[in-house]
Structures
1.
Amino acid sequence: MFGEHVLAGYAGGNAGREALELARGIVALTGGRFTAATVHPPGRPAAAGEARALLDQAAAAFPEAETVLQESRGVGRGLSVLASRIGADVIVLASPEGGARGRIAIGSTADNLLHSAPEAVMIAPAGHTPGEGLARITVAYVRRPQCDEAVVRAAEAAARYGVPLRLLTLAIGDAPRDALRDDLALAARLAAETAGVEAETELAEGDDVADAAAHAGWPEGEVLICASSEDAAAHRVFLGEVALKLLRAVPCPVAVLPRGYF
């Protein structure tokens, strides 16, 4: 699905280390390449020196990672430009320090990438430590083409890595349950026909997104996959309002795929 070349944004501290640990966990599974990058503003030698010192720390702690210093006026833009240049297929970030442990917080870099990146974007919850391997892939499903694309990609990954696949739909308020179950059944058929995977389907009910998400189990080693909104430009990430609420409510890493991720 992704992980042939993982780019992790590193800015030091616990959050930076969590991003690198998640990136290392991905490539341990996929056998891909791993690049750690620090972005600094142009025309500021002192900032460039600080960024180089940070990268030296990353290289010492994660010797398997390639390291790159990237100059840019914005961290999100710098990471996206670098990802395109080196051929990375996912950008990995951690939640900013100070957020609720076990939950994802969106800083300015993540916000930029979640509304413009041409690569998949994956974010770790605060305090996240990858477990032993991948336990399950969950796709947040609503019946539309982008989500069908995510189902196909996730099913292929589940088949490749030998892990279960769950298709999850949130039933908020008085949403029509029968219609949502029918949509899930069609998505499960798609997973079976394209990748030979028998997907579990789950309808999580609640008064709001956080309530519904709390009723869905999230075991250690889970990864949640979200498709981009219909508002996304082709081959770009754009996270919709409901998906953003779900991202903030779950205790596992979340990956958002660009529109047209095939």
2.
Amino acid sequence: MTAASPLVLRGRDGAVLRFTGAAVTLGRADGEHYIPLAAIESVYAEGRSVEVELISRAEAEPVVYRVEDVSEAAATAFVRAVDAALPDEVADVDGSTLVTHRPPVPPARRRYRGAVVLAGIAAPVIALDVFLGVVGRAEHAIAFWLPLVVTAIGGFLVWGMGRDLYRMWYLPRHGITVAAEFSHFTNKSRVYLYRDTTGATHRYTTTTAGPVEVSYHPRDPSVAIHLEGSYVRCMMAFMTLVGCGMAGGGVFWGGALVVSALQG
């Protein structure tokens, strides 16, 4: 006989109650609570609410986890499934001591943030280019794209190389360092996996072969870096300086074009 799929109840304020057959897990804003069956006294369904009551000592008030605004039919099925799986004899324990808590994982950075930043940069640049074409000559509007490309390349070098250099200095000192395990190859790099203190798994991509230790940010474990050798770091610092020169020169060049267009 095929086992039933794990039951999931989604309630108010993003609460999620799951039963996998071995335990009940409750996900809330304060993190995930793992409740083994041995810690549960009983489970109740009251309309569209479900309560999980833990075993308590005689003199203590029982701990109750409650999820509201769930499907009434799903709540009934959930309670029946958990009741059927509970041990026949209630253990003489404080159920709250058996519950484990995992703090919430920081939300992943939204993918569209880069698009918003790009749009915020592109809009004034295009407006300025149109302004040059109107106030000056068409040559000014066309020539404006040359310093813009130089500035963009320089900014890209500073952002990429400079950011990684800063992380190589900051994260090994103030972050958490763990050993990453090799997962698989891609076309141009190797993918390693590492776990943070909450047990969540993250990917780290690099061209480095062999054992890799990554240092990640404690508030955002997806931000990680591994320490490169002295030669690579020197080259990164050099390319960062080159990027600063290109970005500064491009801005100066573009400013000169704007002044030239205004002067006629």
3.
Amino acid sequence: MRISVIVLVVLGVLFTVADRLAVSYAEDEVAAKAQSSLGLSETPDVSVKGFPFLTQILGKNLSRVDVGLDSYPAQVDGTSITVEQLDIELSDLKLGSNYSTATARQADGTGLITYEELGRAYGELLGSDSTGLGIAFGLADDGRLLITLQASVMGQRLNVGDVPGDITLEGDRVRVNVDKDELPSLPAAALSQVEALIDEQAGVERTISGLPDGLSLDAVTPGEQGLELSVSGSDLRLVG
């Protein structure tokens, strides 16, 4: 009886070790396939979920694989912008007959564009020195987007101040909406110029592009550190 228990324990340990070694190998393989198929510039961190793993491999189906990148380069109207903490959850991966391909039924992810990075990108887009409008971003107390404006008015640089606003998303296009009703008190002539600059520059619809292949942008929400992105896709095919 004692020998049988020992044998079972040893077999269990060996199975667990083999299972974990197989997971490690699979994570490396999925990372390489994800880098190639999603058009990533670096190898992502990959974590295969579920135990035991070997039974998933035998069934040629992985229940969940998490893919993570510390940073990812995207674009706003062709201007570079860095998405940080890009984490993608791949669900229900079907493996090909020779294990060289995998298709994820669903992909859901999140990412972050810091307010500092957003302000830098918008500064390049607006060309503040030539257009007369400078812009920075933060989070307002009520959870809306906080927009700090500077404007060149009547030959002088004016610190307009903090104004609440929102960011709207339609497809892959975003628009910063400044709440002009909340602009600080300004002389009438200066106010009209500031409002015109906001309409002509800040309120322009922008296109976000360059996200990993097969993923689309679902939501953009102001958060503590920056704009929080939600992305998704379906039937993502990973190939080596």
4.
Amino acid sequence: MSTHKLRTVSVVEAIAEQLSEDIFSGMFRPGETLVETQLAARFEVPRQTIRSAIVVLIHDGILRREPNKSVYIPQFSESDIRDLFAVRKLIELEAVRMLTARKTLPKEAENAVRIMEVLCDEDSWDEVLKFDFKFHHELIAATGSTRLQKFYRSISAEQRLALTYFRSSHESPSEIARQHRVLLDSIRAGDSDAAVEAFRAHLDESEIFLNQAIQSQQERSRG
């Protein structure tokens, strides 16, 4: 009989994870503040526990806090997006080059694509993004580099948050799944340069979309 080792999760970790899922689901809007007393009452824990969970999410870029102000959901500027994608490309494109050279095709990345392929338009945008980012996370994990994983994790939460608020209206889950199948196949083909260019084009398209969405939002706010 096989056994499975369960990961022990602290109360702080559990609350941080639940809050992050709430934020990714769109429960909170950009710029909205979180009130510690309300969260403590909701989770039935001391405020210090909530503060500790908030520190975790600030470290991940999901929340921000300024001196003498409440913690809030970040709003992203075009410069934020450019900076995030510049770092993401450095990490992810190198990971793709490594995996292609090793002829390594991560099973979990394949599984993430398969799940995306059965999602339908009625599924939540958060569900689509969850497996989208799982795909990319598994590629980084397959390199075996703990430092690459650490650096990638430090920016991916912010990117997922940005995409949470700017859904692409012209892309269905099936189209997103098709794009990721193409990316997976580019690694399988074994041509490092071609695979890197495929991923670069994918990331460039995502960056352009987010910046256009931010520009449109700014134009609407100016009236």
